[in-house]
Specification:
This protein has five helices and eight strands. Helix content is 44%, strand content 19%.
């Protein structure tokens, strides 16, 4: 009988599989889901006229118009409908941001959340959202006439009417989510190499 010490037996462990759903993928998904939250409050003075959700910016939305001589009649990209509402066309920046967000989520899943391409898409999505903010702020500046005579003979002064678009915290959280997705996709992509 051989009493010499035997070398320890080592078992080869299978290579560890990283989950496809990482931090980058979760941030992309979170940014996409934030499109169901209100992104913009359109206000006339201190009164909120419409809370516009992210997906509504991407697909178009309508503002009820109670008065046909309302200052909202001159909004850019609008078409009058029979029901007294104004239909705003989809915003290109919002549509691009939503599309890029979905593509970034798919790429991050396919690359297991570690892709420089996913990082680039995340940065482009955040840039599209910032472009959306600039575009909406530019379009909301209306040229309201100083004096207007209405049908009843009253002279209406619109100098004090202020129409504004205030972006909600949900919009800024969506921008941050896509930047976080880009950061983690880039960092994990670098760690992989």
């Amino acid at each position: 009988m051989d009493t010499s010490p035997q070398p320890p037996v080592t078992l080869a462990s299978p290579p560890s599989r990283r989950p496809a759903f990482g931090v980058g993928s979760a941030a992309f998904l979170g940014g996409i889901l934030l499109f169901i939250m209100p992104f913009v409050n359109i206000k006339c003075g201190d009164v909120t006229v419409k809370e516009v959700k992210g997906y509504e910016l991407a697909t178009g939305f309508s503002i009820d118009e109670k008065n046909p001589k309302s200052p909202f009649g001159s909004l850019d990209n609008t078409q009058a409908t029979d029901t007294g509402t104004k239909k705003n066309e989809p915003n290109t920046y919002a549509l691009v941001a939503l599309g890029l967000g979905v593509i970034g989520f798919i790429v991050s899943l396919l690359a297991k959340g570690r892709s420089p391409l996913a990082a680039f898409i995340g940065i482009c999505t955040a840039a599209a959202l910032i472009g959306l903010m600039i575009d909406v702020k530019k379009k909301i500046k209306l040229e309201v006439p100083a004096d207007t005579n209405n049908d009843s003979g009253f002279n209406m002064n619109f100098n004090d009417v202020k129409i504004s678009a205030d972006f909600t915290p949900w919009f800024y959280i969506a921008v941050a989510a896509f930047l976080i997705a880009a950061y983690f996709s880039w960092q994990l992509g670098r760690a992989k190499t």
